[in-house]
Amino acid sequence: MKVGVLGGTFDPPHIGHLVIGDQALHQLGLDELWYTPVGQPTHKVARPVSAAVHRVAMTRLAIATHAQFRLREDDVERPGPHYSLTLMQLLRQRHPEHAFTFIIGEDSLADLPKWHQPARLLELVQLAVAHRQDIQPDMAAVQAVVPHIERLVQWIEAPLLDLSSTDLRWRLGKGLSTRYLMPRAVSDYAVAHALYSSAGH
Ligand code: ATP
What we know:
By secondary structure, this protein is an alpha/beta fold. It contains 9 helices and 6 strands. It has a 6-stranded parallel sheet. β1 (2-8), α1 and β2 (32-37) form a beta-alpha-beta unit. It binds adenosine-5'-triphosphate. Residues 8-11, 16-17, 20, 104-105, 107-108, 130, 132, 161, 163-166 line the site of adenosine-5'-triphosphate (ATP).
């Protein structure tokens, strides 16, 4: 099978995550898209991240209606540090029969120089990237850590959605509407568990 892996904090998941997953699925001819909440994000230490149990539950709710979307708990179930490289090594070891494409937004591409051994990651998996509003990666810096990055990237042609979990945490914290920005079941869950009620995030 051809499998896309979309790792994220998903705190909370929103339609940006769902749209890039579905567009990747169709444009890259993937069989399944695996949404993989990360255990402890290595890049996002500036704020407390919601407990994995909540991020997993919200991701499950977010993807529930798509027949080719799957929830994977491999990353939250393993000890850290939670690098993308070690996640993909684990998934390949568990599923040697699949061909994996790692899917990221353009902000993550810009951050690639900060990742743990990005060149090794891209030896293991294909990389697909969705454009993201107001992000212009310094490709020379990315090239310095992953030679020939331009040739390795497959671009996902998705509409630019200026949406982020940061914005949704803020809206939920203020009691503002998130309708059409995230699945209703996810916002109901976040409100019921008061996940962002003191959102200074
Ligand atoms: P935060 O606002 O907390 O930083 P986020 O909205 O970026 O969160 P993540 O869970 O960190 O969400 O994102 C997981 C992956 O999805 C990342 O590779 C990110 O670049 C990508 N992504 C998230 N939102 C979008 C979007 N609106 N368009 C394109 N890619 C996105």
